[in-house]
Specification:
The chain is α/β, with parallel strands linked by helices. The chain has 2 domains: about 1-155, Rossmann fold (3-Layer(aba) Sandwich), CATH 3.40.50; about 165-255, ProC C-terminal domain-like fold (Orthogonal Bundle), CATH 1.10.3730. About 45% of the residues lie in helices and about 20% in strands. The chain has 10 helices and 8 strands. The protein has helices at about 10-20, 65-70, 95-100, 130-140, 155-165, 165-185, 190-210, 215-220, 225-235, 240-255; strands at about 1-5, 25-30, 40-45, 55-60, 80-85, 105-110, 120-125, 145-150. Strands 3-2-1-4-5-6-7-8 form an 8-stranded mixed beta sheet, with helices on both faces. β1, α1 (about 10-20) and β2 (about 25-30) form a beta-alpha-beta unit. It binds 1,4-dihydronicotinamide adenine dinucleotide and (2S)-3,4-dihydro-2H-pyrrole-2-carboxylic acid. The site of (2S)-3,4-dihydro-2H-pyrrole-2-carboxylic acid has 4 residues, from α5.
Length: about 260
């Protein structure tokens, strides 16, 4: 496929890094800023440098608030049977089709772990997409990690609040956990190693186990032991559940506002 990225900042750049490893597709980036692009990727800074009906896919990877201003100038560059793919949080198919007309549109919600090929993406395709387009885009997004098709836009907005924004939550949890490890006496390098390896190992243990997460937690919590003492603080008054509930609901509400 011949693919145009409108915007190639943090998220578009992370995905492009994986896609560029595969010689199957060719990429053009349209961005006023010339970021450090993988070899073989063409860069243009404005739409007038493009030809009519050049692309099979146009990936919209600019901020949602910019789409109404920027996208109209690029519509001519998509082939008549091409497909728009948007990774913009919240921005609905109705908003995009209001700009591009009744065209094949796929909303994808990736996350930053795409940078290392371990991303999680949700994918919703509108009715104008053919089965072939859906499977081509699903396979293409799958090159950046796992791809979960969903059957409504609302599911994309809910998934945004879990996996799209998730790396932000996890980076902050890691920061706080590392700070606590340093506070108890470890240097930063050791604190990072202890925390990262504990989290990676725990996630993998949970992934490989048939037990519930609650049972796994109980299995490492000796009666009147150290883990119990720590968990009594972490879980006191249901504060952790309340915090995570409020976190994901705030992100979901923001996705709805960005429609
Ligand atoms: N950062 C993240 O973790 C995630 C971001 N997204 C979505 O990805 C989109 C991009 O977000 P980021 O990459 O974080 O933002 P960013 O600010 O890093 O990248 C935006 C890019 O758009 C470019 N740009 C600005 N004006 C332009 C124009 N007129 N024409 C073409 N390009 C233009 C900027 O130069 C920049 O390279 C957003 O819609 C966001 O909702 C989705 C999932 C995760
Ligand atoms: O913060 C944002 O709006 C984007 C979308 C999901 C993650 N980052």
């Amino acid at each position: 496929m011949n693919i145009l990225l409108i915007g190639c900042g943090k998220m578009g750049g992370a995905m492009l890094r994986q896609w560029a490893k595969d010689a199957e597709n060719s990429f053009t980036v349209a961005d006023p800023v010339k970021h450090d692009l993988p070899a073989g990727v063409r860069h243009v800074s404005k739409p007038t440098s493009l030809s009519e009906a050049e692309f099979d896919v146009i990936l919209i990877a600019i901020k949602p608030q910019m789409i109404a201003d920027v996208l109209p100038d690029y519509v001519f560059a998509l082939k008549p049977d091409g497909c728009f793919v948007s990774i913009a949080a919240g921005c609905s198919v109705a908003t995009i089709s209001g700009i591009v007309g009744d065209r094949a549109i796929v909303r994808v919600m990736p996350n930053m772990a795409a940078m290392v090929g371990l991303g999680v993406s949700g994918l919703y395709a509108n009715d104008a997409c053919t089965e072939q387009q859906q499977s081509d885009v699903t396979a293409w997004i799958g090159q950046t990690g796992t791809c979960v098709p969903v059957d409504s836009e609302d599911r994309i907005d809910r998934l945004t609040a879990i996996s799209g924004s998730g790396p932000g939550y996890v980076f902050e949890i890691l920061r706080s956990y590392v700070a606590a490890a340093m506070d108890i006496g470890f240097d930063e390098a050791t604190a990072r190693a202890l925390v990262f390896d504990t989290i990676t190992g725990t996630v993998e243990t949970a992934r490989q186990s048939d037990e519930t997460l609650e049972d796994l937690r109980k299995s490492v919590t000796s009666k009147n032991g150290t883990t119990q003492a720590g968990l009594e603080q972490l879980m006191r008054d249901g504060q952790l559940d309340a915090l995570l509930h409020d976190t994901v609901h705030a992100a979901y509400a923001r996705a709805a506002e960005l429609k």
